[in-house]
């Protein structure tokens, strides 16, 4: 990809990352700070000692910290939809990011407050200060440098978490790196996003360290000059304490204002993201070739038909359908009929096909052998791990004599349906990861769209490939049942089956992807 193509991707990814991290940082600050203070106050020897509350809150925090973020991201999809009305997009990604960051920041707050000199707390109490006074005039001001350092660490962790946000269509630099750098084998994109992430993290760390040094210097300056008699030292301490608290109060205000204002400045970026005029179609699609075909339609054909496409890219095969079912997107384009039938049956969804668009022939590829005869006992073959594509892969292998399937093994065949493996070992992988495994296995059955990303062509490079004629695996435009007659959908269906799109597919993919227009069979 050229720099002119990479630049807009980086720009959009940068703002998506700032939007997600900014919002989640603000929520983590508001949620994690009181939880961390509560853990200290209710602990043994604390001003609000309560063993039960401390254990319950501590257990909740520990559970939150123990969950890997990718699992939390998926598990919270129903809750995310309840909170923000959608489970896809940058705004949706903020919910799991914030929930994952709150317990992390809470423990950092707890650690920072425990470092405060208990003598100062006792002095404030001796002067008649209650719990609020101790917290706001002693604990938080004294712990402020450590709190800012903890917040800086939290922001950096959130930047890392945001790289996974592409799973829910959140975008961000991490998503750009995966979709364009990793899956499309574009090394230049990967390098550019890595550099951008390094720059962002470095700037955040430098700013955080500078604020910490500023606050620490103010605290040390306020503590200087404690000399004289016991009475004199006491009086000086009282006066010094007042000046110190005032100075740290101002420093605290600056730090908290920065923590709040910067995220709030990004709020406007997300306003209206889920909106649009009545002619805008939100479409979930896999990056290749589906999103590429839609982008061609958007740039060259859609305006004449009076429609605008909001194309949302996903790396998995689940969220596009659940988002279509919930109405968060209007349509999707990524799947074939056997997969959709299986998905609807297992998930009680009501997605229906509208029109076939293209076919991605499944192929068996190898970097270690030059023909089917080279594969035999002791070799390892990678296959996609989703139900229909794994069955599709096994039928391809069986057709060419590499395995034997049990009688009656259907389109959803699994490894358990193999009657004779003929000595082969199988490795089940996510479809997107299969091309990357070619260096580690003897052969791999690769989906057509991922083969394109890996610069593989089933017509030229495959040891064996599916036939196009009579193939039931054409990919189609799909909507929730009842939306088939939406005028926007009808217009898009017409464009996707146009001669211009047919020519685009044939020229761009050169046989790796084939046009497959027309009605979707039952």
UniProtKB/TrEMBL annotation:
Keywords: Cell membrane, Lipoprotein, Membrane, Palmitate, Signal, Transmembrane, Transmembrane helix, Transport. InterPro entries: Lipoprotein_NlpA (IPR004872), MetI-like (IPR000515), MetI-like_sf (IPR035906). Pfam families: BPD_transp_1, Lipoprotein_9. It is a multi-pass membrane protein; Lipid-anchor. The chain crosses the membrane at residues 20-41, 53-77, 83-106, 147-169, 189-212, 253-272. GO terms for cellular component: plasma membrane. The lineage of its organism: Bacteria, Bacillati, Actinomycetota, Actinomycetes, Kitasatosporales. One of its GO terms (biological process) is transmembrane transport. This is D-methionine ABC transporter permease MetI. The keyword Cell membrane applies. Belongs to the binding-protein-dependent transport system permease family. CysTW subfamily. Residues 14-208 form the ABC transmembrane type-1 domain. It is found in: Cell membrane; Membrane. The keyword Transmembrane helix applies.
